[in-house]
Amino acid sequence: MSLELWDSSLQALRKRVDERTFESWLAWTRFGSYENGHLVVFVPNSFTGNWISERYSELISSTVEALAKDFKQISFVPDEALHEELITQANTPPRPTP
User: Fold this and answer.
1) Which of 42-51, 59-68, 84-93 is predicted with the least confidence, judged by mean pLDDT?
2) Model confidence over 28-60: pLDDT tens digits?
3) What are the CA-CA distances from residue 73 to residues 28, 53, 64, 91, 98 (Å)?
4) Residue 92 has what DSSP assignment?
5) Kindly report the CA angle at 34 between 84 and 1, in degrees rounded to 5?
6) How many beta carbons lie within 10 A of that of residue 95, not counting itself?
7) Is 97 left (phi over 0), alpha (psi -120 to 50) or beta?
8) Residue scoring higher pLDDT (19 or 94)
């Protein structure tokens, strides 16, 4: 249920926030862990985690709680590998469309 919990939450959140917000902020999150009702979600950096938490913590919490009745809290934790992935993606020129 762990990884699927965050994937399912993201699918539900995609329908509840505008596309630009989802792609800019939520799409760059990754499942960290889920233990004893505590969901850890990796984010590229602390700024991203704080931004998401300040603006969407209630929406995210209610979405996760609807999927996991034992849910108690969520933490957004910076992850260096995810940060590097974001930097690499940002520095990669777009491919031309055929």
Assistant:
1) 84-93
2) 999 999 999 999 999 999 999 999 999 999 999
3) 20, 11, 9, 34, 45
4) S
5) 105
6) 6
7) beta
8) 19
**Strand ranges in the chain using DSSP code E only, listed in sequence order:** 30-35, 38-43, 73-78
| Residue 97 CB neighbours (<10 A) | 4
As a whole number of angstroms, the distance between CA 51 and CA 96 comes to: 32
The tokens describing 43, both together, are 């984010």
**Which residue in 22, 2, 20, 3 sits closest to 12, CA to CA?**
22
The pLDDT value given to residue 1: 56
